[in-house]
Design brief:
This protein is mostly helical. It is built from eight helices and two strands. It has two domains: about 1-30, no CATH class; about 30-199, no CATH class. The chain has helices at about 15-30, 50-75, 85-90, 95-105, 115-130, 135-155, 160-175, 180-199; strands at about 1-5, 10.
Length: about 200
């Protein structure tokens, strides 16, 4: 059973992959991305090298969430805080290619993507194996059919690698998220990417 109150989500009962996923999704729904901290489960069922790889990946995702929060702060405020630029420059652990993409958003530059944010989010939800909001179900089916058709025509596997997902995630993070639903969807995708890194 999961209960969320007073800024915390608590899980009671046996922990399975399904309940852990539910905790992440509920946390993303209730709290903003910069307030979510999840124990990644070091040690349990992992080798030493897997634990080390897991620890190395955590700062980059945390820095991505911080960078997105700073971008959103700048987008939402007509007069951004005077220390906003300093906080942006102080970001650590954000890989250089990620920072370059997000900096365009931070500086209110024009996105260099021909793909819309809703389509990127659908693509990522499909790739991560998470559900899309019901109002996007028809678009999701069209996108899946198009991907399958393209894979068949090129005689390639429609499989998506973790690197593909990471690249698409950064592309989506570099676009402004004007509405709460898009921000929630992106938070769920980030949680799914974190889960995948832990496996």
């Amino acid at each position: 059973m999961i209960s969320c109150a007073d800024g915390r989500c608590v899980l009671q009962g046996p922990v399975t992959m399904a309940t852990a996923t539910q905790v992440l999704e509920e946390s993303a729904r209730v709290f903003s991305g910069d307030r979510i901290v999840v124990d990644p489960g070091f040690g349990f069922g992992k080798t030493r090298s897997h634990n080390i790889a897991l620890m190395r990946g955590l700062p980059a995702i945390a820095a991505l969430v911080q960078a997105m929060a700073l971008c959103q702060e700048r987008e939402m405020s007509p007069e951004p805080a005077s220390d906003l630029e300093a906080r942006w420059n102080a970001l650590e652990h954000l890989p250089a290619p990620w920072k370059t993409k997000l900096q365009a958003r931070f500086l209110r530059g024009k996105p260099d993507s021909a793909v819309s944010l809703p389509e990127m989010l659908l693509d990522l939800e499909i790739a991560c194996g998470i559900e899309s909001p019901s109002e996007f179900e028809a678009d999701r089916q069209r996108l899946k059919l198009r991907a399958l058709k393209e894979a068949m025509e090129s005689r390639r596997s429609p499989a998506t690698t973790q690197d593909d997902i990471e690249r698409r995630l950064i592309d989506a993070a570099a676009l402004p998220c004007p509405d709460e639903l898009s921000r929630e969807r992106l938070a769920r995708i980030i949680a799914a990417v974190q889960r995948a890194q832990r496996r």
